[in-house]
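>> received
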Amino acid sequence: MNKNYTLLLFVISSFISYAQYCTNVGPSSTADSNVESVILNGASGSINYTGCPGVIGLQDLTFLSTFLNAGSNYTLQVDFGTCGGPYAGVGQAWIDFNQSGTFETTESLGTWQGTPPALPQSFNFTVPIGSQNGPTRMRVIQQEAGTLPINPCGTFTWGSVMDFTVNIGNGVDCSGYTGDDTNDPIIVSNLPYIDTNDNSYCYSNQNLVYNSSDVYYQLNPSPMMESVTISLCGSSFDTFLSVVDGFGNVIAYNDDVSGCGTQSGLTFNTDGLGLVYIIVEGWGNASGEYILEIDGNYLNTVDLTEENILIYPNPANNFFEVKNYNGEIKIYDLAGKKVKEIKNYFGDSIDLSDIKSGVYQIQISVNNELISKKLIKNDFE
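>> returned
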C-alpha cells in the first residue's frame, strides 16, 4: 500500500548511521512500580536478578547472561512488583533473536497486566530455528499505568526497563554473509544482475527509515550508462528500496511501484555519479525473501564506428580497456583460438594476466557488424 512521505526525506538523509539499541528509555522516577526479579535458566548458565531500589532510565544488566539453543524451549520468570506503593500497570519481555538492534512484535516473550503484589509470571517460549548465533539482548519492561503492547523504546514515569545478554547457539551462522552495511556490501560487478536473498536473518537495521533489517549492494556505474533500473517485483513482503551515494546522500527511493503491488522499483540517472549503494529493506518491520534485479540503460551507440572504439593501453601488460564500447567481447589468438570472452562489458578493466605475451584480435559487435581490433600483450614491468 502507499504511504505518506511528508517527513521521509528528512529521516532518509541519515541513512549511513549504524543501528543501535534504543537506550534513552524507561522511567523518570525511582518510586513505586519496579521489576523485583528476573530468572532465566539456559542451556548453560542462568540469569538470576533481584531488583529494588528503583533505577531511572535503562538499567544496563548486560553483564548478566545465559546461553540458549535455537529450537529449544525455555521459561522466563518475571516478578512484576513494586519498590513502593501498589499501582496497576503492565509488563512485557523480548529477545532480539535476529540481532537487528530492535525488539520486534514477533520477538515478544509474553505480557502481563495487573496490580502488584502478584505471583511471578512464567513466559514459556521457543528460540526460533532461524535465530542468529552470538550474543543478543533481552529486554524486560514494567510500566505503571501503561497499556499493552508496551513500546520497547518508550519513556514513562514509574516502572523499570532492564537489558540482559542472551547468547544464542545452534542457530544460523552469519559469519559468511555480506551486505550488512557499507563496509561489507554485496558487490554488483556485472549487469544485468539478479539476486535472491532473505533479510529476515543475518542482517541488522543500519539506517533510520524503518526498523526492518536491510541489505546493502554496491554498484559502480559505467561511464557509458545513462541510468540504472532496479526492481524488487516478485518479493515475498512489503519492500522499500533506496539508493545513496558514497557520502550517504539520497539519490532515489521508492515504496510501491505501479503494477508491482507492495514491491518497490525505480530508475535513477547515473550522470556524474560514482559508486552508489542500493539498499533493500522492508516497510516497517517487514522481512523475508526478495528478488533484486538491476540493469543498466546505456547511451545511444548508433553513431559508434570502428574509428572511435579504442583499445587502451596497447601494447598492454596485465590489463586493458575498450574505450567507447559496451557489450560482448571475444579475444582470439593468431591461430583463431578463443582465449577469453566477456559476455557483458561495461568499461571495466579486462584482466590479461592469464594470457601469455603475443598478438591477439579483439572481436566486438557494433551496429550489428563484427569488427576486430589488434591487441599486443607484453609482459613488461
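>> The chain is about 0% helix and 50% strand.
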